[in-house]
């Protein structure tokens, strides 16, 4: 159990661990159940950083630092996946050519635009949250990473994979099944239930917004790739986070 959590933590963050998340044990899929737990830890770190920065710095600077910390803690892994996904899905090519584009390490115009849009949404939402009460700020920063990582786990377990042969995303799906989906869903629902009594409407709105954006990307990927890839998983997480964070400030800030 702890080994599965450590694999998830090592894969999804840059936090140093004694074990490697990229070994060839074939048990990577078991860590999917712990993805939202990693999101909760990430959210706690971001929340602490936001409170510390907000205590000594103006909101615009604090928001920028939190976004930077968000990217640094994940090693830019999910953001890179979003960029590759945008480059591939919005290219006027065949599914095979789109997959080749997504394998290219050089970002294209669509990828850069996608990353800029997501980062701007996160920055704007954080800027607004920093100007409200600390409880709302913490709720948003705790829930968004949890939902983002749940969407990644659920998509990897439930939806078809587009690539044939060996790939990072394909290897990581091995061993994943209903038990991992149940565990991941339990983590996500527990955080949702904990936040709902204090931020009920906004938590529901955040869940709906995050799932709507992630669902739109799933539909697009299934139509244009006939499946998902590791890059798409990262894109799902980024969109779910951005949507959830934006929903937390809807109607409460100017």
Automatic annotation (TrEMBL):
It is a multi-pass membrane protein. Keywords: Cell membrane, Cobalamin biosynthesis, Magnesium, Membrane, Transferase, Transmembrane, Transmembrane helix. InterPro entries: CobS (IPR003805). The chain crosses the membrane at residues 32-55, 61-79, 108-130, 136-161, 181-198, 204-222. Its cofactor is Mg(2+). Pathway: Cofactor biosynthesis; adenosylcobalamin biosynthesis; adenosylcobalamin from cob(II)yrinate a,c-diamide: step 7/7. Its main location: membrane. PANTHER family: ADENOSYLCOBINAMIDE-GDP RIBAZOLETRANSFERASE. Joins adenosylcobinamide-GDP and alpha-ribazole to generate adenosylcobalamin (Ado-cobalamin). Also synthesizes adenosylcobalamin 5'-phosphate from adenosylcobinamide-GDP and alpha-ribazole 5'-phosphate. Belongs to the CobS family. This is Adenosylcobinamide-GDP ribazoletransferase. It comes from Rubrobacter xylanophilus.
